[in-house]
């Protein structure tokens, strides 16, 4: 039951983000959309920003199937395409709250792309002498910030071109 309610809250939040400015979305409004009370919301989430991060992950994993891809490039392409397709939500966040909240929602998904099966293994050829965890976090921060700036500039660059450029940069870094 807990997971079902969390999913409902995530979906309600994303639906509201498509219709209203972030500043007009209240916890009461989200809870009402799901037929639950504010206390139920707080049982599942600490605050609206916690919900936002979970809602992003829910949409990308369950609706966009971001992690169904086998390659790093495929995962990044799905992620960027989702952002561009949902620019109403992204622009809503960037217009109405600090970009750090968007960064906090995006970072866990991007770091996941840099780890495990999605690590750009085809790009990493040998040990560079740099701690791999440090390098992955460093690259993730850079990718996250670049993607936020891409959104702030109205998604002008094409998704495939962005992914291609990321791959070229990673090849240079990992040489």
What is the element string, with H for helices and E for strands?
HHHHHHHHH
Overall number of strands: 0
Separate helix tally:
9
Shape verdict: elongated
The biggest beta sheet is recorded as: none
Low-confidence stretches: none
Structural Rg: 17 Å
Structural class: mainly alpha
Quote the average pLDDT.
87
Termini distance?
49 Å
Strand proportion = under 5%
User: Domains counted in the coordinates: how many?
Assistant: 2
Helical fraction equals over 70%
Question: Can you walk through the features of this model?
Answer:
The chain is mainly alpha-helical. The chain folds into 2 domains: 1-52, Homeodomain-like (Arc Repressor Mutant, subunit A), CATH 1.10.10.60; 64-174, no CATH class. The chain is built from 9 helices and no strands. Helix 1 packs across helix 2 and helix 1 packs across helix 4 (48-63).
Summarize the structure.
With 175 residues, the chain is mainly alpha-helical.
Question: What characteristics describe this protein?
Answer:
175 residues, single chain, Arc Repressor Mutant, subunit A, mainly alpha
